[in-house]
What we know:
By secondary structure, this protein is mainly beta. Helix content is about 10%, strand content about 25%. The protein has a domain at about 60-190. The strands form two sheets. Strands 1, 2, 3, 5, 6, 7 and 9 form a seven-stranded mixed beta sheet that branches. It has a three-stranded antiparallel beta sheet with strand order 8-4-10, with no helix packed on it. It is elongated.
Amino acid sequence: MRRLIVVVLAVLAMVIGMAVPAMAGGATTGTVSITATPYYLCMTLTFYDAHDASWALGSIGEGAVYYWDDEGAYPGAAPSFALALADCAGNITNCGTVGDITVECADFTGGAGWNLVVGAPGAAEVQVTAYLEGCATEAAGTEVDNAPATLLHSLAAATSIGVELSLETGTFSDINAKSSTGVVFTIITDTP
């Protein structure tokens, strides 16, 4: 019987010992170390062959395609594909640390205006297409709309890539001069 009491007391001591929190003078704080790598966005757009930030086409015809690098031609001659740097009118450089490149354009104003379309343009419509150096075929270009479209994923830091544009016309309903506020290239990141 004495042995049973000793065993019961030992079991009770163990159960009570597990249920009661330790009251010793231990630490009451914890530390979490935080490390982070900053990133920044930076992009430059430079131009070749006396091109600049405007593309003045002058008088253009219906149902024709014009290329930025041949802006004086009527209509512009298609560049060779795969697109070489020499066939590009501009150059995008990632001067930041990360970056995807998007492209967008505003509709054209003046008279009846022209709407941007993805696909073949119709009445009072135009299609703007962006091409990157190395683009294998004309069909592989990125059709530009009013909303940002991804032109390139992850242009590495301190690297550049040539860029070319085309404008395809539909049919016209007036002969007033048209203009757009422009094609906008933007460097972004998916990192929150």
